[in-house]
Write a structure and sequence with these properties.
Distance between the termini of chain A: 43 Å
Strand order of the largest sheet of chain B: 3-2-8-6-7
Structural class of chain B: mainly beta
Oligomer: heterotrimer
Number of domains of chain B: 1
Radius of gyration of chain B: 12 Å
Number of helices of chain A: 9
Helix content of chain B: under 10%
Structural class of chain A: alpha+beta
Shape of chain B: globular
CATH architecture of the largest domain in chain A: 3-Layer(bba) Sandwich
Largest interface: A-C, 65 and 47 residues
CATH class of the largest domain in chain A: Alpha Beta
CATH topology of chain B: Ubiquitin-like (UB roll)
Radius of gyration of chain A: 21 Å
Strand content of chain A: 25-35%
Amino acid sequence: MKRAIVIGGGIVGLSLAVGMARTGLSVVILDGSDQEPRASYGNAGLVWVQGKGANHPPYAQWSRRSASLWPAFAADLLAATGIDPEYDRRGGFSLCLSDDELASRAKMVGRLSGQPGIPDDVVMVDPAFIRERLPKVGPDVIGGSWCPADGHANPLLLTQALAAQARGLGIEILRDDKALSIGMVGSQLTVFCVENRYPAERVVIAAGLATQPLAATAGMLVPLRPVRGQIVVTERLPPSIAHATPTTRQARAGSVMFGNSHEDDVVTPGTTLPILASHAQRAIREFPFLASARVLRSWGAIRVMPADGMPIYARSESCPGAFAVACHSGITLAAAHAEIVGPAIAADALPAELATLSSRRFDAALAS
Amino acid sequence: MLRSLLDPADARLTITVDGRSFDAHPGETVAACLMRHDLVPSRQTPTGQPRAPYCLMGACFECTVELDGRTNVQACLTPVRDGMVICRNLRA
Amino acid sequence: MPEFARVDPATDVAIIGAGPAGMAAAIEARRHGLGVTVLDDQPAIGGQILRGISHPRRVHYEDWGLPLATAFQQCGAEHVRGASVWARDGETLVYGVEGQTCRLRARAVILATGSMERPVVLPGHTLPGVVTVGALQALLKGSATVPSGRFVLAGNGPLLLLTALQLLEAGAAPLAIVDTMPRRRFRSSLRHAPGLVGDPALAMSGIKLLARIRAARVPVFRHATDLRVLGADRAAGLAFRSNGREHQIEANLVALHDGVVPNDQLAVSFGCASHWNAETQCYAMTTTDEVRASVPGIWLAGDAAAISGGYLATLTGKLAACDVAHELGAMTAKAHGEAVAPLLAERHRRLRARRFVDALYAPTLSAAKADGTALLCRCEEVPVSRIRAAIAQGATGTRQVKAATRCGMGPCQGRQCTLSLVSVLAEELGAAVTDFSRPSLRTPGRPITVAELAASHTGQGHTGSDA
């Protein structure tokens, strides 16, 4: 059996590993410890399409493609593992609280509409439309955008389910060795770790922010930067918010997560009171009933942001069989990674539809 | 389950719990008063299990009640005041 | 729009907690002319051990208690009762009083948040009618309230014995003491007995306590194991094994105890480092001898840092205040050195005596051995069996178990389950507790409403964009 090594056991790595193992490859995941920073534990859990790729239709299509695979992907995970990733696809809103927000949202929706190959279902909606679906919004909500394809999942359970599925497929997860570089020993593709070296037919680097330096050892350009996102979590509340927004979602357990912040180039996890307070102020304007809900915790996690915001798929020239994948929206793209990219990498190729999302775009940027 | 060591004549405050009136001693905490009148459970978990004051020092969050309109007030950290209105919000 | 926080006048030292450590620190800091504000979440001064000392009713306190409380009340420190501190924003503490959010700027912070009882995990322990032994003591001292019906005390630790005696003196006799100290524990602790010369008073008070309990003829069941609370909707009794026999005691109040541990959540949420202390089987905050925490501007006094009892808490409170006074320029290096040396020496001597107590009363009701049906996480109602299952399914650390089970995600923010969780992980994986990271806790250091969070800062406006 051909052996594949996936470096990184977060949602991106697990999704790809599962997709590769299904084709018959023997897959080993090199993962870090429980303590290491993990974007898989520190994200909003949105399976989201509205607004994605507004300036780059292939990215919009790719997000759509994955979102459309999500229902079957989630059902498969539940059937295979008994763990429900709690995917809900009831459509999502982006709520606007000022004329400025409304105007910039309308502009974004305008850019998306009429793009080839993308359904024309992202629309601006009035407060009455919103109130009908989100009866608890406050009077400050003066409009917003709506897309029926948007949804959300529980990232913690998704991670658990993918890990369980990986184990079910015979994927081994090693935690006590750390990958340092990728290279060739003669004609043998090899992962060099602190303790051991691992020969493999395929290697995929899906190690979050560590992808950039690791990919560089195999000649792949994957420019990334850290972004910190802070989120506030409430106690469990009765079902009150049926549709997610980029700032607020209610998990099935009842807890409401709110806040959407992007602090560029912050590398330390943690929260700051000004941002948490801003989150709370906005949450109360969007959903006034939240004012009396208890806040139980908050977190600020370091996430991965590609240089141009769009996912990067790389194939090494110098180390045939080595690939790298990095993206900001690992949840949204999990279905496509498991169903499309994993099998493609197993067959030693990247899907043709990802041509413009390949790392080559940065070569071009360098050359020009 | 509890009794006060103080003179019953000194229980000159009145609090309202779920619409009924109960006497209270100045200085006792809401949690002590609830337990003294056997008003347990004082809350239910999200799955409906009964809970009552447990640690009485603010660390377990079992004794939370709705107090004068504020939700999730820790009864063990709150001294009684005359006229306080408490809801246990128990579901049948 | 939300109301913004009340801004208190800035102070030199903010002390969190008005127990022995906090009061001693306040008195000392005032002696050096520093402005002091004491924020305490309890309704009155005293903390746990001196609870009710400002209006003592039928309870004996240790000799140093009343002079300390009196000196505190006269020292000129500002005391804010009912103040729940939940964040530190730069040099500013954020706290709530009855829903009002307040901000207090202080040049130094002394955390003196005391201890809490070690969480106990056994079947039925969440039923109404089950309380901690410390709860009975708090009810007695704070609210002059005692058990009225059949009640039993179960577990292990000096506080259990002391509370039994205090209840007896108040006219409330327990049906029995169900003592969970294992066989041979006394003998194995004796190797630390020589240290008791460092604190003869501690040894004497223990001996007296045991003698008085014996004289009161309360039935004691020794070496009890397999404890479980009986009852469906509320406690109906306690079942256990003792000396090879199964016992059941009918009771409408069951009080449990397994020692005390630092009440350190606020310090952890402020980013202060802690480490595992194998002797006491709990975390201890990492400090210098002068009780400085790992975070600049924060000192940790008393049991909040490591359990050492009320009297030693007054010493570390003084140590903290002297160090703060020196740091803030209110005390010369020479004066500081002269003040601190005897405090450190006395502390060192008395800590040696603690070792025997720590060994004798090491925990006995560890979740690691608990029945699978017992709830390990009270808030999210997670039984021990589900934690074990998550570990069997591949969870290798606290974060993974939390993610799989929601353990620790409820209102107590892990206060009642963290120690149990790490002990089960260590047991199931055959590892040391130090192999697991302590679950992190950030803002808020205690639950607050969204409105309180909104009011805590003017904010930075919306920073969001699409996901």
